[in-house]
Amino acid sequence: LNLIFEKGSYKDPAGQVFYYNDSVYRALTKEGVKRFNEIKNKGIIDESISKKFLIDTKVIDSEYFSEHLNKYYLFLEHKKINFVSYPYEWCFEQLKQAALHHLNFQIFLLERDCVLIDASAYNIQFNNTKPIFIDVLSIENYKYGSYWFGHKQFCEQFLNPLLISSAKNINFNNWFKGNLDGISTSDTNSILSFKDKINPSVFTHVFLLDRLQKKTIENPKETIRKLNKKKNISKETYKYLLLNLKNFITKLKISNNKSLWQNYSINNTYSFQEESLKKKIIANFSQKNKFNCLVDLGCNNGTYSFLSLESGSKNVIGFDYDLNALNDSFIKAKKNSSNFLPLYMDVSNPSANLGWDENERKNISSRAKFDGMIALALIHHLCIAKNIPLENAINWLVSFAPKGIIEFVPKNDETIIKMLQLREDIFSDYTAENFENILKKKTKIIEKKIISSSGRTLYEYQAI
Amino acid sequence: MNFNFFFYSLLLIFFFITPSYSYLDPGSSSILLQAIIGFIAAVGATISIYWKKFKNFIKKIFKKDK
């Protein structure tokens, strides 16, 4: 059997996630079976699935796998997610929705005498715009008086990134990618001002927590003594903590500063006719191919992603590095229940393999299974703004999917003229002719259409 | 010389004693925070019970007066 084990699934020895034939499974040890059955027998699993808190999960015939995996006693199959994403690829609104999903799920469980054993943001995935909890083994029975053990993790992976983004307009993404555990409470406390800390929730979960952490480091004996004196918290206090954070996070808003690309679709450099021709070509492309999962590289606020969905694509994953534009597109997609997942990516520095053994969190290309690709007004950002050689840029773009459309922006276009105004033009290779020759070498060009007076051209290609 | 030896020996002893605590789970501060919140909530609840009793007591007095 060609089983692929998920390398990121090592933290809980009670289970192991693996892939087989494009499906997702989880193998449970004796301890895992015990934990799972206790919860399942209470009806929690089924209710969590029907209330859309937990990913669709079913017990499957174990004989099929047990022959090869004799350490495990029970096998579960989970519904597959279109594209696995990580918190450092989410915009503010996505992390906020994930945080609220976690808290709502915890409250739901606590009311049924169950809890989540941790608060990892990686345990939440997006099915288009809807957050869903994926780690069934994170649910266990609530023991009366027990603390919320995921509190510190919740602060680092949800609360603190949201806070620095909302209060200080600092994008959490690159920081989060550098430290997969999130943003520490100590760092958050250093960044926030006195005014920010007047808020009772910030005071408690950031300022006070940081002070206690520092005191613990200075005098661990004292912390142990205090902890021994007070051994538990009531269920009401546990629930109060969750509700307090839920109310606070619900009110958090992204900072109002407009970004460079946020209004790009309104303030771009081409005319209405040119834009409508471009739209027509993209719509035809989706209509003709009816993609299962299209990737929109440089999706901005999702104009062409939404158009592709309306024209026949089933799902669209969009990437851009402008977090404000992504935030707007996520809110729009959520409002319209579109099958669109916008994600953060700097094209010159896409998410790499990260974490333990460089394999805990995967790079973009190994998570991708796209059947279509559009890269509109992007190539000049790769080649001119980031100095990436034209051939490398084309190779990278066409590696995403067997079919696609790339927009070539020539040097006499207003955008590139602006880009080159204050720097030397060292890009002699960047010509339409070279672009076409390289693309021809790699793919079969299906159609070529000039869409603007400056000579912007859409190339539709197909893998050879 | 002797003093230095004594001082550094003592320091070393302290360093050998303390590491067991330096591995204290950083999550313990979060637990301590929750214990404090729990304590404040309990005090708050007690105060609110007595406040209600006090309010009822005052109400009764005024009702009697009427």
How does this structure look, described?
The complex is a heterodimer of chains A (464) and B (66). With 464 residues, chain A is an alpha/beta fold. Chain A contains 20 helices and 16 strands. In chain A, the strands form 4 sheets. In chain A, strands 12-11-10-13-14-16-15 form a 7-stranded mixed beta sheet, sandwiched between helices. In chain A, strands 1-2-3-5-4 form a 5-stranded antiparallel beta sheet. In chain A, strands 6-9 form a two-stranded antiparallel ribbon. In chain A, helix 15 (323-335) links the parallel strand 11 and strand 12 (340-344). In chain A, helix 4 packs antiparallel against helix 5 (151-168), helix 9 (200-218) packs across helix 10 (220-229) and helix 18 packs across helix 20 (432-442). Chain A starts with a strand and ends with a strand. The mean pLDDT of chain A is 93. Chain B is mainly α and 66 residues long. The model of chain B is unreliable at 1-22 (pLDDT under 50).
Summarize the topology:
The complex is a heterodimer of chains A (464) and B (66).
Chain A: E1 4-5, E2 15-20, E3 23-28, H1 30-41, H2 44-50, E4 57-60, H3 63-66, E5 74-78, H4 92-110, E6 114-116, E7 124-127, E8 130-133, E9 139-141, H5 151-168, H6 173-178, H7 185-191, H8 194-197, H9 200-218, H10 220-229, H11 235-251, H12 264-267, H13 272-289, E10 293-297, H14 303-310, E11 315-320, H15 323-335, E12 340-344, H16 364-367, E13 372-375, H17 379-385, H18 390-398, E14 403-408, H19 414-420, H20 432-442, E15 443-450, E16 457-463
Parallel strand pairs in A: 10-11, 10-13, 11-12, 13-14
Antiparallel strand pairs in A: 1-2, 2-3, 3-5, 4-5, 6-9, 7-8, 14-16, 15-16
Chain B: H1 2-17, H2 19-22, H3 28-65
